[in-house]
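Good morning N.,

You mentioned wanting to compare the apo and holo forms, so I went ahead and generated the holo version with S-adenosylmethionine. This is what I fed in:
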Amino acid sequence: MRNKPGRVCPVERAGALDNKIRRWFQNPEKILGPYLKTGMTVLDFGCGPGFFTLDMAWMVGDSGRVIASDLQQGMLDRVARKIQGTDLENRITLHQCEKNRINLAEPIDFFFSFYVVHEVPDQEALFREIHSMLKPGGKVFIAEPPVHVSSKAFHQTIDIAQETGLRLVERPGVFLSKTAVLIKDS
Ligand SMILES: C[S@@+](CC[C@H](N)C(=O)[O-])C[C@H]1O[C@@H](n2cnc3c(N)ncnc32)[C@H](O)[C@@H]1O
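and this is what came out, ligand included:
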């Protein structure tokens, strides 16, 4: 069944996204390793319960920062509970965004979005905002679920992203995912 844009994954399903079994086939370190470096500022857009967020924070180190952003406060609360009392509290900033607006002033090195873009009603507005937030040379990583997103719809998403000035550079292989990596050249 295809997802309608705007239909959001409920907080009650957070457990299905954040568990040890998922790490076997979508390992955050393996997926993100080629892109993250110490000191980067990265955005985990639609972070959900934070399956990728904590690994991202380890990978950017003490001098880096992860902005974990989600539409739903319930998802951000789950991330908050996971990092409470740990060193990662200093590296992770929680941010609640609006349906069609991220609304962050800070320039970012890397935008990461896993199984989220198909839930955003206005993709054109989203990619325009991503382009304006990214530093020159910054990258965007998108992964979408094949169950909800057809090849045609995914290509449309890439086209929309490219129309805003991002350039497609890679289609990395990730289990159960349609993926694209784009760059902001200048
Ligand atoms: C399927 S979950 C994926 C969560 C996480 N990226 C992962 O892979 O575990 C989709 C997440 O995107 C969030 N989301 C949906 N629409 C959004 C929007 N317009 N802006 C920000 N987050 C959104 C949902 O609240 C949900 O947490």
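Residues 151-163 form the longest helix (13 residues).

Happy to go through it together on a call whenever suits you.

Best,
F.
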